[in-house]
Amino acid sequence: MFSKDVAQRVKDLSLEKLKNMNFDVDQHLIEEATTEVQNLIDYKMIHQVCDNFHIDERKNKIIFKTGDYLFGDYIVKNLKEAEYIILAIITLGDRIDKRVNDYFLESNYTKGMILDVIAGVFLEILTNNFWEEVRENAQKYGKEVTDIFYPGNKWDIKNQAVICKLVDSSKIGVNINHSFIITPQKTVSFVCGVGENVKRPVKESVCDDCEAKDCIYRNVPGESKYKVTVRFSSNTKVIEASEGENLFHILVRNGIRLNNFCGGSRICGQCKVILNEELDISDDEKYFLTDKEIKNNVRLACFVEIDRDLEVKVLSEEQKAKILTKENNLLSIESHPRIKTSTVDIGRPTLNDQGDYVKRIKEAVSGEIEIPLGLLSNLPEVLEENDYKVNITIRKNEIISIKKAASKEYNYGIALDIGTTTIAAYLYDLDEGKEVDVYSCLNPQRTFGADVITRITYSITNSQGLYQLHSALINKINEIVEEFCAKNSIGKSDIHEIVAVGNPTMIHFLLNVSPKYIAISPYVPTFTSKIEIKAKEIGIDINKEGYLITLPLISSYVGADTVAAVLANKIDQTDDLCLLVDIGTNGEMVLGNKDNLIASSAAAGPAFEGAGITFGLNGVEGAIDHVNFSKKPFYTTIGDKKAKGICGSGIVDIISELLKYGIVDSTGRFLSKEEVKGAPRDIAERMTVYKDEPAFLIEDGIYVTQKDIRQIQLAKGAILAGINIMTKEMGIDVNEIKKVFLAGGFGNYILPESATAIGLLPKELKGKILQVGNSAGVGAIMALLSDKELERAIHLQSKINYIELSTHEDFQNEFVKGMYF
């Protein structure tokens, strides 16, 4: 398929890239892998030449005769002189993806990485060859060709969906998911323009046109360096940056946290900074900023590309959040601890009794006990120093701690609920089964995106992405451990176990396992079983022989947090039909009783947590959390602070009120002022326009827009569709459900009346809804305190049957119906 010259070029470029990645590989390995890639490539290309289009520079759109359009000032600027536009997709097929994945699963990372790099070089060469062929043909007719433009670099990745549609990518086996990621992985989509007046700058590599300046595959020599001085909180940091680097990614890479929901994808408008000078600003960026902000040099970090020395002040720093940690009296278990600490007298050795130290320990504790190597290295010294009287901590059949006897036998554990947005941690005395302390914080991974798909995408598309997301969690957990120890006068070595729950993506990140395939069809996680490891294996700083346990997962989108919530609410032990609903960036639901349990997950998106809402916020101080138009003032804020934006419970209340007063109809449309009849005058007068779309003024500078209504419709439509399909699958009427457990932070703060009023939950369930707080945290505590409850959690995994909604024959119809109010 490939000439010797092409194969040699691939080898040379691959070797250069691997050297840049600090991979020391010999020529033989490159030769072998190049041959393997050639045998695996299933090369396919599809393209479309379009001459029937027009460009709307005001709206930054290239509109085709089908009504589809490419958008963004970057692509319009580069193609506005084109007479023809070529849209194309090139793929190497999925066999390379599978082989690379096989190597990684076998822990043969070197070979997997080499294969991946070589395949990428092949794809780059094939793309350039296609462009050269286009240019050669164009020049025969006196035309020139622009550069190739790829969605996802300086150009919004959403355009990838338009290219796939117009060329009909399915003909060559290329698919695109709801996060606009195409599969197979070794696939590119792109466009270029042809015309007499187009200009093409000379470039040597597609790397020149890519924003991923920190990419390990990057091959652009001689880049200019600039100094970026960043002021955040009370700190100042000077960062060296290459020309063209994206400011958002620079800040994230250097540990400077920004409020954002989209991971730098330019769709949330949250990562605000103040620059020391005025820079050009696009219409896309202007959409997120007020005229006053623009005048004051406020910019979004994700839109700023470095081309000079800059001084930057970070505005959107992490705010104090209202985080749910209360258990709402769910916790009632009999303790069956895995770990016990007791004071033990060890027989001193003599000339007449020369039994070894391990034997003496085993005799003292009366059991066939394992002792890890880490404790053997200084065992005689520990016993000698403490006059052979020590505190011994035993976990199951393993001694994990031997230290000086103390008046208090310190034995602690931590239950950890890792949510997409927040983290809640509970310190427990394992001997007494009592809570000692509670800690809560925002999940530091929010910097990389508000929802799991955005974070997975970040982990895939950034060379250090997985490490960054993993280490962000580990560093925060170690901060929590430090806080617990300092506040309660205990040592890290006194903490012997952590039980962690979370959704599948969070658990994968926690364990430093890529969740990549959770986001790619057929959406399969790397593991679903309970994981039990030494905490030190992933860098958690507790007792050196202490353990980390993660509860089992149900599927790619129903995780250990849901298992823990079922455990806490004892749904598997009741005769009554119960529905558990935990609504966050993903909606997890479990329906059933002791005889039958089914689960499903709906991609609600992050709208219920404020993301994707024009003035949306997490549950931080100043967020509007409840709204009632009949009261004065008609809204409240978290912490009774000045209103800064709207959180999830607030947006649900607002829509409920807009429906109640006839300002929004059942389709979600804002009515005109003339159509509104039942609203008081002072409420109706708040109907207005914001950024060219209908809106409702809540407070000066804070609006609910038509787009926001649509975001909530999409989110609640998915949840309601899931509930309706589950009742059908179980063969019951929704009225047969006796209890609804509304779990999680959003579930705790939302008004049940508002939830049923907008159809987030079936109206038939009104009056049956119980807000059960952080059930996931309660379940984690139960598994920490009782080995029987841990075994019950493991059994739940096999007892709960999962329904995949996306492939269910009724989902589309139910989803569309569920979008109506």
Automatic annotation (TrEMBL):
Recorded superkingdom: Bacteria
Gene3D superfamilies: 3.10.20.30, 3.10.20.880, 3.40.109.40, Domain of unknown function (DUF4445)
GO-annotated molecular function: iron-sulfur cluster binding; methionine synthase activity
SUPFAM superfamilies on file: 2Fe-2S ferredoxin-like, Actin-like ATPase domain, Methionine synthase activation domain-like
Domain 2Fe-2S ferredoxin-type, first and last residues per copy: 226-318
PANTHER family on file: IRON-SULFUR CLUSTER PROTEIN, IRON-SULFUR CLUSTER-BINDING PROTEIN-RELATED
Protein name: Vitamin B12 dependent methionine synthase activation region
Organism, scientific name: Thermoanaerobacter wiegelii Rt8.B1
Species classification: Bacteria, Bacillati, Bacillota, Clostridia, Thermoanaerobacterales
